[in-house]
């Protein structure tokens, strides 16, 4: 990656979620999956004056054929080219290996997620604590996961097993790992809901919030009705501050192109200029809709003192 000064509006996840939680809204963490779809996410954030998070997971890096360095370079290039001034975070989503986290931090990611949720509690704490210590030493925020978030789409996760987050375990987990944000399992799933109906266990979410001060993250935001998302955000003691959205973006891209099968990043780059513009417009519309109708983060960029 080319050496460049990090723009002042590119901040850590902790900085962003502190403002969002105080303001009673959530920030969308959007996964473009293809590097050419980073720009429409940033454009939507700029046009709606919303803080924005751009993310990619370890499995997505492999599945779509992208390195953390390529992804980060396109992100920073787009920030400059598109004259993006709203607060932005570059986030590494679900990641199992510390080596990938180290590469992402070296590439310029300002937030990383360690996902050891398939391990028992003791091992999850130990692994997450190590990742948090490393990232914090580099000035980077850390998200971790407790419980197992199910899936209908195996691009992000290996298993469809679901295990709800235990509030008491969450208290111990955040105290010992010092993670900045916690992804909780309360009923949503990665992917598109086909048979299973989306749901949110608000009582469990309230119980987790009552015991832990850490920022809470809802994975599997694609396909969840807006009223469910907003209720989870507006919990009296402070609800969800970050919502992950990936599948809806890719589905809008593929539908606009008349495609059914996923591409690789290299295949996306071979699209004609017209196809690329069509796809980017579709992704931008989807992100804009999520910002305005689901997250209510529009017009909130002005609340950041950058």
UniProtKB/TrEMBL annotation:
Gene3D superfamilies: Aldolase class I (3.20.20.70). Dihydroxyacetone phosphate binds at residues 191, 220-222, 244-247. Its cofactor is Zn(2+). InterPro entries: Aldolase_TIM (IPR013785), Class_II_FBP_aldolase (IPR050246), FBA_II (IPR000771). GO terms for molecular function: aldehyde-lyase activity; zinc ion binding. The keyword Zinc applies. One of its GO terms (biological process) is carbohydrate metabolic process. NCBIfam families: cbbA (TIGR00167). This is Class II fructose-bisphosphate aldolase. The lineage of its organism: Bacteria, Bacillati, Bacillota, Bacilli, Bacillales.
